Amino acid sequence: MNAANNTRLIVTKAILWLLFGSATMIAVARFTRGLGATTNLTDATPWGLWIGFDVLSGVALAAGGFVIAATVYIFHLDRYHGLTRAAILTAFLGYVAVVLGLLADLGRPWNIWRMIFYWQPDSPLFEVGWCVMLYLTVLALEFSPVVFEGLGMKKALRIMRHLTLILVIAGIGLSTLHQSSLGTLFLLAEDRMHPLWYSPIQPLLFFVSAVGLGLMMVSTESSVTSWLYKKENEWPQLRALTRAAAIVMSLFLVLRLGDLIVRGTIGRLGEPTWYTALFTVEVLMSVIIPVALFTLPKTRDQRWATVTGAICGVGGLVLYRADVGGISHLGVTGDVYVPALTEIMYSAGLVSAMALLFLFFVERFPVWAEKPALPGHFTPPVADRLTGSYFGGSWFGRSHLAGGAWLAGLVLGLVVLETTTAGGELPIPHPISPSRSVAAVPQEPGSTATSRLELARFDEPGKPASPTDVTTALLIDGDRHGRFVIFDHEGHRARLGGQDSCGRCHHRNLPLDRGTPCATCHRDMYRCSDTFNHELHTTRLGGNSGCVRCHPNPKAAKTRGGSTPCSKCHAAETVTNLAWTPTLCDASSAARDEACGACHAAPRLDDANRAVEHGMAPGYRWVMHRLCIECHCATESEQGRSEPVISRCSACHRGSLDIPETSSAMRVARLELP
Fold first, then answer.
1. Phi, psi at 201, each rounded to 5°
2. Whole-model pTM?
3. Domain that holds residue 621
4. Which residues, other chains included, contact 354 with Cβ-Cβ below 8 Å and sequence gap of 6+?
5. In this structure, is residue 547 part of a structural domain?
6. Tens of pLDDT along 1-52?
7. Rounded distance between C-alpha atoms, residue 203 and residue 130, angstroms
8. pLDDT tens by residue, 347-372
């Protein structure tokens, strides 16, 4: 086979380079301009395509590595030995893609190293992170004999062969742990998931589906690469793998339907909803069609059926992981999330990059060798394998075509970025709605919630018992996504010192105001808001003659940054600046980093101060989080708490409005008490 003259291979590589080029441009924009410029993610939908596909599905797609390794080295089924190296390479590249996809999705990817030194053994994500990191290392070591053999490094090759069984056992253990732990993670999200996808046996479902997906992914990879390189496939082995996959996937369906029956949720399948149709399509693709093609007498020995069933099964299980990871959440949160074109292109480019690396190793090293090459067998010179003459030509297909396709991809990515992203480097606008006065009642005795109040629901007989039980609180839900905060305004004011404490939160007031609401100045959830009215100031200061009040140097450029700080003239309206003073939870504090640094990127403190001094109000979410968390951290420190409690997200974000606000069953908005 001459790769340089293989048209289907050259065209495939050109397409892969094009997609990789577009993903390169989008990755640059993601890491320089932020998540808001490249995704449609929101607070209500923080996990989208990059988690559902790149991470959750990527981990499952790589499961073929530990499945085939166990088959050959643990169960000693040597007839599958020829599939081992390709399966391990696929798994290794799959986990590289998982890491790259995770880095793109994290708000602060440079903090990913923290899990190595700051242990949280009670966290499923901590366990998943460590297993992925360790298993990626194990896969690299498992595949290293292929590289050492190809490069003629005999001593290193002998050492790694002695460690093969140890590495296989470690890989099986690690992969089993984090495949199931990914399911454990979603046990914490019951209130966010549609009942058809939430399950208390989610860890078991994730593990079983990973085994089935691994078997079908090995079959898919072998079939596709055999077609690309026009080589004979290992059809007897693949047919055996797909029949095993049929058994595993049948077990998966039995477990899933049995769980729905036991929990009394099976009736949801009769509802005429979009989610019922999605569940049906998912089951057809992942189980029904593959099992039928793999087991029916008329199709089980047909090559087309093996390939079709494997590809269909892979697609169905990827859809299942995506549904669990995010799509099923939309039915509960009510949020509308459609992946941005930039998200889709980044994921496609990431897969393309891994495919190009796979083809590189296939063409350079003995990945397809049935057994390790014996002494005396022909081994191409190292220079030939690294420069491109191995298998008859450059691994690019043709270098000029690959380079041109990659450059075309860069241009395509740039065009998509400029035409589809809202506001360039700025997040999509999310206007803020002010807080509302609502009826609230004290928490029931024995409640573990840190907030002292809960909404008063008049649809529950006997609650509240009498009007005296009802007080007024603020319901903070700035973006109206239903994830509200009940703020005990009166209780906070009493604890902090009465009316003299108002400046702790209302750090700056409009003229004649006392306690100007936050949303008056911080008018967008993420963007800075301009609070400076230039025309009004010009009129009140006497027209152009008053310019020197703000721009004292007539020779300097009249810019916002070089103007007189607002506090010079508006000292009376500036009650206090405590909200911007560095405290225990500043960037130097590990407590604040643990509380929100891993997910929420925020402006630097000095940037926020400069913005406020020149008429710019930072985003609503950032100022609310900073104001509350800093005060809570300081309180915890003063009280000598052994662990953070009131600085955690759950201290404030405790519920969701599951009943429409207009419903007569909930009359809590602006209740007037006698």
1. -105, 30
2. 0.68
3. 436-531+567-652
4. 93, 94, 96, 97
5. no
6. 455 567 888 889 999 999 999 999 999 988 888 887 788 887 677 888 888 8
7. 17
8. 999 999 999 999 999 888 888 754 33
